[in-house]
Design brief:
Signal peptide: 1-16
Structural class: alpha+beta
CATH superfamily of the largest domain: Trypsin-like serine proteases
CATH topology of the largest domain: Thrombin, subunit H
Shape: globular
Domain Peptidase S1: 129-386
CATH class of the largest domain: Mainly Beta
Order of helices and strands: HHEHHEEHEEEEEEEEEEEHEEHEEEEH
Number of domains: 2
Number of strands: 20
Helix content: 10-25%
Strand content: 25-35%
Radius of gyration: 24 Å
Distance between the termini: 14 Å
Strand order of the largest sheet: 12-9-4-5-6-14-13
Largest sheet: 7 strands, antiparallel
Number of helices: 8
Organism: Bicyclus anynana
EC number: 3.4.21.-
Keywords: Disulfide bond, Hydrolase, Protease, Secreted, Serine protease, Signal
């Protein structure tokens, strides 16, 4: 996916101008478009990956390698300047750069399915999530409501009905990420009626926000059936570790103003950060202070607790695979996301780090809520998605 993302960037003239400003072209025997030089692509990736930290020398080296431009104004480089894996260090390149240019050994970075996760994701409405108890229209377009088929008994007659019981997030056009306890019970898969995309307040047919003379309304809701339920194989049915699941939809989500994917911590620098003390946002249609479920999507910002604070309440298999945060907010559902604003492809995006797993069982006051750590399950996610 890294090479593909770079190619997308390189076909935009402004991108090449940004990287190769004031480049002095030169002559060389093997002058080819940069998109055809694999070692140069890895080098470019490292420039964008570090996004300004100690890369001036690398930018200058890149400029010196330019040998022209093709008909589409895409830079051409002297490809032999960039060492391939296993070759000696070329003059003018440090050992550190050679190591960085080499293909990543990270199994997630080079996973065959990593390209199925969109690079355009987690867009923040405006510049930041605004304060307030309730979500804005289009603020969290990746939120999904999971609908369960249930039955009601009255006068010796059973009536089938559907109810919204859990939340999830869009990670691409065919998959919803959620908690395993939302889709499996006592070793058996629950009956799912489908997934609703694009909802803000499920008590109304039309979602509107604003004042009378400046009101925005949205009617586009997508109710999609589930083609396949994929709970983690280590989930035992109780609220322990591996409380994570994927739902493959029967048809693709139509991406729209109120339907878009969330970013996942797919890059190593995102997966390796220390979450302790960081503020994140939880969104969901869950319990309120009463406690009563709300039909309107709500949000709250809360910090992640230390491992020591969480450890006394961890289930024995959870350690290092989960994190916890305050439950005072009384917001969220099983499967709801814990999101942290992070740098993703050089832009500030919402990245999902957690899936609400357990907590708030009897009271949402003065309690801890535990989240499955998505960064620890990226390989599992990639292993279980397909085109």
């Amino acid at each position: 996916m890294l090479i593909f993302q770079i190619l997308l960037c390189l076909i935009v003239v402004s991108c090449t101008e940004h990287l190769f400003t004031s480049a002095q072209t030169r002559h060389c025997a093997d002058c080819i478009p940069i998109k055809s030089c694999k070692s140069a692509l890895y080098f470019v990736h490292m420039i964008y990956r570090f996004n300004g930290s100690t890369i001036d020398d690398k930018r200058q080296f890149m400029r010196n390698s330019i040998c022209g431009y093709d008909a589409d104004n895409i830079a051409k480089v002297c490809c032999p300047d960039f060492p391939s894996v296993g070759t000696p260090v070329s003059e003018g390149i440090t050992e550190q750069v050679v190591t960085e240019v080499s293909p990543s050994a990270d199994p997630i970075d080079r996973h065959r399915n990593v390209g199925l996760l969109p690079s355009s994701c987690g867009d923040i409405d405006g510049a930041r999530i605004l304060n307030g108890e309730f979500a804005k229209l289009y603020e969290f377009p990746w939120m999904a409501l999971i609908t369960h088929n249930t039955s009601t008994h009255a006068h010796n007659t059973s009536y089938a009905r559907s109810e919204f019981a859990c939340a999830g997030t869009i990670i691409n056009s065919r998959y919803i990420l959620t908690a395993a306890h939302c889709v499996i019970n006592k070793g058996k898969k629950k009956k799912l009626a489908g997934v609703r995309i694009g909802e803000l307040d499920y008590s109304t047919k039309i979602d509107c926000q604003g004042h009378v003379f400046n009101m925005t309304c949205e009617t586009k809701i997508q109710d999609i059936e589930v083609e396949e339920v994929i709970p983690h194989e280590n989930f035992t049915g109780s609220l322990t570790s591996s409380d994570i699941a994927l739902l493959r939809l029967s048809e693709p989500v139509i991406m729209y103003n109120n339907a878009a994917p969330i970013c996942l911590p797919v890059y190593s620098e995102l997966r390796e950060i220390n979450l302790e003390g960081l503020n994140g946002t939880v969104a969901g249609w869950g319990t309120t202070e009463n406690p009563i479920r709300t039909t309107l999507l709500r949000k709250v910002q809360i910090p992640i607790k230390s491992a020591e604070t969480c450890s006394s309440n961890y289930n024995k298999n959870d350690r290092n695979l989960s994190f916890c945060a305050d439950g005072d907010s009384c917001i969220g559902d099983g499967g709801a996301p814990f999101m942290i604003e992070s740098e993703f492809n050089g832009l500030t995006r919402q990245v999902q780090y957690g899936i609400m797993s357990y907590g708030m069982k009897y009271s949402c006051r003065n309690s801890l809520v535990y989240y499955t750590d998505v960064s620890k399950y990226m390989l599992w996610i990639l292993d279980h998605i397909k085109e």
